[in-house]
Amino acid sequence: MGKVIVVTSGKGGVGKTTSTAALGAALARRGNNVVVVDFDIGLRNLDLVMGAERRVVFDLINVIQGQVNLAQALVRDRHLETLYLLPASQTRDKDALTEDGIARVISDLREVFDWVICDSPAGIERGATLAMRFADEAVIVANPEVSSVRDSDRIVGMLDSKTLKAEAGERLKKHLLIARFDPARASRGEMLGIVDVLDILSIPLLGIIPESEEVLRASNLGAPVTVCGRDSAPSRAYFAAAGRLAGECVEVTIPRHNRGLLTKLFGRRAA
Amino acid sequence: MNLFRILTPIRSAPRARDRLHLLLDHERRLVTRTDLIAILREEIFAVVGRHGCVDPNLVQVREVRGTAVSTVMVDIKIPIRRGAIASANSARRGAPPAGSERRQ
Fold it and tell me: Per the CB < 8 Å rule, is B10 touching A271?
């Protein structure tokens, strides 16, 4: 039986889709069968980030409504043989998502894949609640910024009350993935530090993804950063996070800003 | 131009941290309190409902939060029915004690 992970955040634009694709690819590179599921009905983007947009024929709603079977809707990744995408519908309304339908799809995916990674839409509405409903564990993506941290706190509350696990009285395991961390700004006190975010949210840290041009480059090229930017800092951070997700004991290192002597003496930027 | 501002780095992160602490402390209480009051109110209505018709508007559930302990106060107003008291009194005379008609 595979494990179901929801990648969620509450706030939009923090890196949920990027992280879903990167973690999915990193887990697939470890030899696991992985499917990434896009729950953002009407605003799908996981297909674009993975470079599969031209190969999408059927989608999650088609499967839920029984028009096609799972095998017809799954899109295999161009680079990794064990990575699949189940795209969201771009033309339908999110009301087409039904709890029974999703329960059936998730149950079928669990049978086939080691990891089922659900990319949640932003917000706390139906799409987001259904994306987290059947999760075994949650990855909360947050940026070191006030609105993102506040929304993450709200999402933690929802994970502890609106998931099947929570309703059964079990504790849903949560992981915090801090994305877009800028060590230089944090060292200057212009950005919330890792310790600050951890102290406020009190969730175990899965990883720290540094702000990097490589993430945009990977999205431009249509491949997860763990596929096309393998030696880059964000890629290494995602591989380490995937290892921790898989239960490995990988030490978390906080990215540090190395300042030269001249920068130390004269360099400073406004906040 | 303020020379002090140029020489002193602008550290906005501590402000962000303090604002978040204050805000989330408030919001977490709000969510917990709303849920607790809603659950208690529902359960109290169910219990009171078993003992006859009580107007839900006459049941008040309030919570007073302290730093260490919170107090939940329940105020149930039960209208006095003259006939019921008379019959209860006569029953009590026959077989004392039979309990009170007015509970608060």
Answer: yes
Ordered by start, the domain boundaries in chain B are 3-94
Find the CATH number of the domain harbouring A160: 3.40.50.300
Domain that holds residue A158: 3-266
Number of inter-chain CB pairs under 8 A, A vs B: 47
Q: Is B77 helix (H, G, I), strand (E, B) or coil?
A: coil
Taking CA B101 as the corner, what is the angle to CA B96 and CA B104, rounded to the nearest 5 degrees? 130
CA-nearest residue to A149 within chain B is B20
How close A186 gets to chain B, by Cα (Å)? 8
Residue of A nearest to B29 (CA): A157
| Minimum CA–CA partner of A153 in chain B | B24
Specify the pTM.
Answer: 0.78
Token duo for residue B38: 């809603």
Average pLDDT, integer, range B57-62: 76
In 3-state terms, what secondary structure has residue A36?
strand
What's the domain count of chain A?
Answer: 1
Burial of A235 (0-12, 13-18, 19+ CB in 10 A): buried
* Closest approach of A3 to chain B, Cα-based (Å): 30
- Minimal CA separation from A184 to chain B, in Å: 13
Q: Which of A47-61, A202-216, B72-86 is the least confident region?
A: B72-86
Share of chain A above pLDDT 70, in %: 95
ipTM: 0.81
What are the tens digits of pLDDT across the range A61-120? 999 999 999 999 999 999 999 999 999 998 877 788 899 999 999 999 999 999 999 999
For chain B, the C-alpha Rg in angstroms (whole number) is 27
Residue B94, pLDDT above cutoff 60: no
